[in-house]
Specification:
By secondary structure, the protein is an alpha/beta fold. It is 41% helix and 14% strand.
Length: 145
């Protein structure tokens, strides 16, 4: 299950704790699955630690939060699903460099995992061949167990 709370980033930490977090916890606790994925637009970095307490295995972050900072704020025991790069519309050398940079930041040695996605990075002018090359690169350089 993936729960999107894309507007959570517009809340202050106090507002999130008071209004959104209880509802998020209730939804995740009511889920019939034992492993829940949760995605959010975490443009407010201070919310990441709170989001990690909601009861999910995965916390989503957007491209504005560096993965190493997101990991630090989320803490141990959670994988990250990150809108990893918004550079999918550029030439391959630029996209390749951005993809490799994401992969380097994603591997923190804890084994908690990272779900690589493009999120808002797939623009109408994105070349499908470039997107396919990104998928091939990610598959070639990561352990997908």
């Amino acid at each position: 299950m993936q729960l999107f709370d894309s507007w959570a980033g517009s809340l202050s930490p106090d507002e999130y704790t008071r209004f959104a977090l209880p509802a998020t916890r209730a939804v995740l606790e009511a889920s019939p699955t034992s492993r829940c994925r949760r995605s959010c637009s975490a443009s407010h970095r201070e919310l990441l630690g709170l989001m990690a307490t909601a009861g999910s295995d995965v916390v989503g972050v957007d491209w504005r939060v560096p993965l190493d900072e997101a990991r630090r704020r989320v803490g141990a025991g959670h994988a990250l699903q990150a809108t990893s790069t918004r550079r999918s519309a550029g030439p391959w050398p630029v996209v390749e460099q951005a993809t490799r940079a994401v992969l380097e930041r994603a591997d923190d040695g804890t084994g908690t995992g990272h779900v690589f996605n493009l999120g808002h990075g797939v623009l109408p002018e994105s070349d499908p061949a470039i997107l396919a090359a990104v998928v091939q690169l990610v598959h070639a350089e990561t352990d997908r167990t």
